[in-house]
Every structure is written in C-alpha cells, then in structure tokens.
Write a structure and sequence with these properties.
By secondary structure, this protein is an alpha+beta fold. It is built from eleven helices and 22 strands. The strands form six sheets. It has a seven-stranded mixed sheet. The protein is globular, with a radius of gyration of 22 Å. The chain starts with 5 loop residues before the first strand and ends with a helix.
Amino acid sequence: MNEYKFIVVGAGFSGAVLAERIANILNEKVLVYEKREHTGGNAYDYLNENRIYIHKYGPHIFHTDSQTVINYLSQFTEWYGYRHKVFAKVDNSYIPLPFDFRGIEILLKKKEKRIKKVLLNRYGKNKKVPIYELLNTKNPDLKEFGEFVFEKIFLHYSKKQWGVNPLTLSKRVLKRVPVYIGYADSYFDNKFQGIPSGGFSSLFEKMLNHKNIKLMLGKDFREDFELRERKFFYRGKYFDGIIIFTGEIDYLFDFKFGRLSYRSLRFDFEDISTEEFQPVAVVNYPGKEDFTRITEYKHFLNQKVKKTTISREYPGEYKRDGSDFNIPYYPFFDKKNEEIYLKYKKEASLIKNLFTVGRLAEYKYYNMDDAVLRALEVFEEIKRITQK
Ligand code: FAD
Ligand code: UDP
C-alpha cells in the first residue's frame, strides 16, 4: 500500500477522470476500487448477442455545452453524431418531447391557433418554459394549457418515477424538461451531443489503461479501508494519502446521520425478431402503464442489424439489500434529504485527505458532463495541494 498515495473509489465518470488525470498529469500511481465487475459506472455498455450496444443501467446520451469537457473526453473517443429524439405515447399518438407546438397540433387541434398565439405573446419564440411556471400563471388560457400538459406528460410519469407528486420535489427536476415555445429539434438543446462511436465502455478502457493505474474490480473499498475518528486505516494501518470517494456518502459514514433516499430502477430487457420496434430510441409512457419508458438501443449508434433489443424501465424505491431496486440511481430531491446530505457534507469536509465527488457522493442530479467537469475541477484542487 505504501506504493499508493492516491485511492479512487468508483470507476464511473467521476472516478475515472480523476484516476486518469492523477496518473497522466501528476505521474502518480493510483489504486481504483470498483465494487462492480466492470468500469463505467452507470454509463457502462456492452455488445449483446444481437451485436447491439446495450446500456445496462439505462439509456445514456452524452450532451454538453462545455468545450472543456468535449476536448477532454475526445482524447479517448470519437463520436457518433447522434441527436436524441424522445416521444411520449399519449392517447395512442407519439408526441415529441420536450412538449412543443407539434404536441399542441396533435392533442389540442381545436384550440391550436389561440394557444400558440398566447404562448408566443407571453414568452416569445423558441423559449423554454418550466411547466410549474405555466401552472402558476394568472392568465386563464395559459393555466388551462399548463394543467393539460402537466396531466398528460408530467404528473403520472413523475409519480411512477419518484413515487410522489413532482410538485413536492425540487424545481430542478421538472426544469430538465421544459415546454418549448416553437419546434424543438431534439430532447436536449446543448451545442454538442453524441455517443462514443465504440460505446461508452471503450472510452473508459482508454481512460484507465495506464501503467500508473491499478484497477481492483469487484471490490468494495471498505473491505480494505476503515474510517475511525476522521482518519482512514488500510487494513488497520493509518493511511495518510488522498482518498477520492465517488460512492454513496451515507454509506461511507455508516449512515450515522440517517439514510439518504434514492429512487431505483429495474430494466426488463427483451430481444425481438423485428428490425424496428419504435421510431426513436426512447419513448416515454406518461399514462397508466407501470413502466416509464421503452428504450430501443440500436438507434443510438444507428446499428443496422436484423433483430432489435428493447428495455422497459420500472421505477421503485431503493432498497440497499433488496433483490430488486438495489442500485441507487437517483438522489431524491426533497428538504429532508437535503438536510441529511448537508450533515454528511460537513463531516466529509472535516477530513483533510478526503474528496467526495460525483452523483452519489455529492447527492446531485449530475449529467455525465457535469460529473466530468466537477472531477476536472477537483483535480485542479488536488494538483494545487499536492504540488505545494
Ligand atoms: P456512477 O456512474 O454511479 O459511478 C459510481 C461508481 O462507484 C459505481 O460504478 C459504483 O459501483 C462505484 N462504487 C460505489 N461505492 C463503492 C464502494 N464502496 N467501493 C467501490 N466502488 C464503489 N447523464 C447524461 O449526461 N446523459 C444521459 O442520458 C443520462 N442518462 C441517465 C440515465 C439513468 C437511468 C441514470 C441513473 C443516470 C443517467 N445519467 C445521464 C447520469 C449519469 O449516469 C451520471 O452523470 C454519471 O454516471 C455520474 O458518474 P459518477 O461517477 O458520479 O457515478
Ligand atoms: N418527466 C416527466 N415526463 C416525461 C419526462 C420527464 O414527468 O415524459 C419528469 C420526471 O419527473 C423526470 C424529470 O422530468 O424525472 C426529468 O426528466 P429527464 O428525462 O431529465 O429524466 P432522466 O433522464 O434523468 O431520467
């Protein structure tokens, strides 16, 4: 262990970026613990028997406005210029998301002209309006329209996804999918979107294939490390190197301030002997079905194969020791959890050689680009303190 001054826990985007930077730029040895049998975190993908790239932990589309992130990741991959299209299946029609003028034309034909006019007057062309803003307006036409869209698109989908009415959650959640005043050309409006042309896992292989990086797959870091009185011990011996932790922060501290809530998912995969199951990669089901969305994976890299593979996505409450729903996919954004998280954050800040980074350790709704950017920032901090 004396060999290693740097320990990274978790080999998702957050951990992989930090391990790569420390190995390459600081030229230091890094030991990476990853409790799964593979790297990539939730962005992991693999080629299945139909030769289709499957995202095991849910559909992942890279999208960003950050040139820093694009430049950084492009060292390890080329990109397939996929643009993400999502439809919602409403009353047997495909409605493009974000909900825009096409949705009005399909679902509100009779009121089409009036609604478009009111929206354009109030917000202007190509503006993005959070749904709760429409719900809270005093204008009766806008309010009625907002309530219609909320019911058709958001309410039932979100109840399935989060187990509660979404208006009780942080506004950040619904803000991710605004109503679009005009015609949106993609689910995202970032300047760059794409999928690594050889899949996400090959991007991770290139990042982590370095003589200074040792990967310990299938190993929880707490099998080797113990935290006592704000100090880390490796198999009983005091460890004064740097620990970068990207797992669940409540688990790191033995849940001493209480358990943080997460939402989890179950993916039911199905191989189908047809060339195309649905017109786009992701179709959301905001109605009575008990799943939220169906993903057809071949669309991501436009793979031309005779068969297809889909998954139905069923949300549920995270149960750490359950046989199902045992992966903490989504931090649950309410006040109680924010408060618990702040206690862990404060405790972590009192441990000088600990950095908590990423979706689980910071309990944040990071997209992949946010996770990469944050890890690059943390690297700068580590560089500064270690080169003093
Ligand atoms: P993770 O990917 O969760 O990696 C953490 C890793 O740490 C895991 O591999 C875990 O096994 C390991 N670990 C945890 N504890 C320990 C321990 N004690 N010891 C050893 N290892 C440990 N983002 C986008 O930009 N676009 C998308 O389309 C998109 N789709 C998503 C769809 C779903 C269903 C979900 C859940 C997320 C999606 N995201 C998307 C977000 C994206 O997955 C995250 O931004 C990204 O995975 C964050 O990386 P991370 O390294 O912080 O966390
Ligand atoms: N949402 C919804 N209906 C949809 C799509 C999204 O109600 O058809 C809500 C839901 O609460 C979801 C949130 O908007 O959790 C954010 O959606 P996004 O697609 O960003 O979710 P993610 O990809 O993170 O699962």
